[in-house]
Amino acid sequence: MGDAVRAHGYREATVADVVRLARTSRRTFYEHFSSKQDCYIALLAERNHLTVATIQAAVDVDAPWRSQVRQAVEAWIDVQTADPVLTHSWIRDVPAMGEASHALQRDTSAEFVSLVRALADTERFRAAGLRPPTRDGAVMLLGGFRELIATAVEDGRDITDIVDVAVDSAIALLLGPQRG
Fold it and tell me: What's the rounded Cα separation, in Å, for the pair 132 and 35?
């Protein structure tokens, strides 16, 4: 499915493209997925799990807290940079899919919010007098990062150009007023 989206975009990709590129049959496809959309949602859910695992693995919890923030942001941006077409499609196409994609969006958001809160709930952060961001704060951060990435791709800019502003935004969230 990823290859079909990279070649044609999500909207123009067809099940025929998917099975041709995967060198499989329609029958096999439909044994696993009910539709092109179902297949794409499964791909993105798996990609999200791998992204979260990559970010977790990249953060050295013994490093200074500001370094941990940079490590997390850089790991996330690296994953997005590795596949900008799929990243852009995920950000722009999924919201237009309607009800079927809402569970994916909610699950993805919840997984990233949990990740952000867990990464900021370590000894280094507590020693600096910091608390994990609120759920709403983490959602704002995720939404801002996603929009920065989408506009960078749309403008033909290198996604890594947003690393510094993303790090600064995350640090500002962590340092800002904390409300229970």
Answer: 39
